[in-house]
Write a structure and sequence with these properties.
The protein is mostly helical. It has helices at about 10-20, 25-45. It comes from Paenibacillus marchantiophytorum.
Length: about 50
């Protein structure tokens, strides 16, 4: 196994997501929708024809 040279970017993003606490349900829904939009866009970019 190789040694990690720096901080894991995925873990940084997960930690950042845990730090963000929505003020109300509308903000929570908006945050979740943004995550869903990014996943959908990523899936479209990786589609094979």
């Amino acid at each position: 196994m190789t040694k990690q040279k720096g901080v894991d970017k995925n873990l940084q993003n997960v930690a950042k997501d845990f730090e963000a606490s929505p003020v109300n349900s509308h903000q929570a829904q908006q945050d979740q929708q943004q995550v869903n939009d990014h996943r959908h866009e990523d899936a479209l970019n990786h589609e094979e024809n």
